[in-house]
Write a structure and sequence with these properties.
It is built from 13 helices and 7 strands. With about 300 residues, it is an alpha/beta fold. The chain folds into 2 domains: about 260 residues, Spore Coat Polysaccharide Biosynthesis Protein SpsA, Chain A, CATH 3.90.550; about 35 residues. Strands 3-2-1-4-6-5-7 form a 7-stranded mixed β-sheet, with helices on both faces. Strand 1, helix 1 and strand 2 form a beta-alpha-beta unit. Helix 4 packs across helix 6 and helix 7 runs antiparallel to helix 9. The chain is globular and about 50 Å long. The termini are far apart.
């Protein structure tokens, strides 16, 4: 019996790394993640989840009868890797963080998972258990529950034709021109969101290879931040690998809108930033109107004073 084919497979991961014990506002419980993951597990397309045996049953229960594949990972297994040792050495060493309470500055396992997104996506694209053409990564906690009850729930993604360009589609949230790589890492300047990205198998394969090389280099250079910083360095090295969506100026979860409506929403600050000269003209115009109004008011007041005299 042949395996049915689906246009897209979504890949994610869920592991209890005891994030609930780090300082607020960055603490998250595994129960929160399971609740938020309900959106991802509502999709009609196949979903592959890298998770532990302890959480696999919960994931299967939330998924119901929809197509699902579980791939086993464990916290102990990740801790026994060379990557974990390298991350832990940098976090516990002399690295100075702008905000040391962030999970990537606090939990080596957090980095150990996020740094593997591109590799896990590549593995699924290579084995292709559901005979798909496109492959998307989505974080388990994507949107922190904001899409529950939305029209995307239970039907996303609905618009896949942009992925036919054989590039990795990636959301730009904040341009930070003028910063070199070391400054970006040390100041935690987020340029691209890696909460949701993907493309055809060939693009995902190229991304996995490029990301691995850049990650190894940045760790050797003692540059440690989150996976978004590494992805930005991959983009700077090979921009032709990507189709950039945005920028959205701070809106991190616009890929749901992108694969639903084909567009993204920008923050108000983003409009001002993109339309600097229009904003300047408006400001000058308003200032001029204010000046004329004040002149008119003074003139009226003067006339009233003269009539009273």
């Amino acid at each position: 019996m042949s395996t049915p084919s689906f246009p897209v497979t979504v890949v994610s991961a869920l592991l209890d790394i005891e994030r609930n014990f780090i300082p607020q506002p960055y603490a998250r419980s595994i129960e929160e993640y399971l609740e938020w993951m309900g959106f991802l597990l509502s999709f009609p397309c196949p979903v592959v989840v890298f998770t532990s045996p302890e959480l696999a049953g919960r994931v299967k229960s939330l998924r119901g009868s929809k197509p699902l594949e579980i791939r086993e990972i464990t916290a102990d297994g990740l801790r026994q890797t060379n990557l974990h040792d390298r991350i832990a050495a940098l976090i516990s060493g002399d690295t100075k963080f702008v905000n040391p309470d962030r999970p990537e500055c606090y939990l080596p396992l957090y980095n150990g998972i996020t740094f593997r997104k591109t590799e896990w996506l590549r593995q699924v694209a290579k084995s292709n258990p559901f005979q798909s053409e496109y492959f998307l990564w989505m974080d388990a906690g994507y949107g922190y529950g904001r899409f529950k009850g939305s029209r995307a729930e239970g039907r996303w993604p609905v618009r896949l034709n942009p992925l036919a360009d054989d590039r990795v589609h990636l959301l730009q949230v904040n341009p930070h021109p003028g910063l070199d790589e070391a400054q970006r890492f040390r100041q935690h300047k987020v340029v691209f969101s890696t909460a949701c990205f993907g493309g055809k198998a060939s693009a995902v394969e190229r991304l996995g290879h490029a990301y691995s090389l850049v990650l190894n280099r940045t760790l050797e250079e003692a540059l440690i931040d989150d996976d978004q910083a590494v992805m930005t360095s991959v983009y700077e090295q090979d921009p032709e690998l990507f189709t950039v969506v945005g920028p959205t100026y701070g809106r991190h979860f616009e890929m749901v809108r992108y694969f639903t409506d084909g567009k993204v929403s920008k923050s108000p600050a983003g409009w001002v930033n993109e339309h600097r000269w229009q904003s300047a003209v408006c400001a000058v115009g308003l200032a001029g109107l204010g000046y004329l109004a004040s002149r008119k008011l003074r003139s009226v007041q003067s006339e009233e004073g003269e009539s009273e005299g």
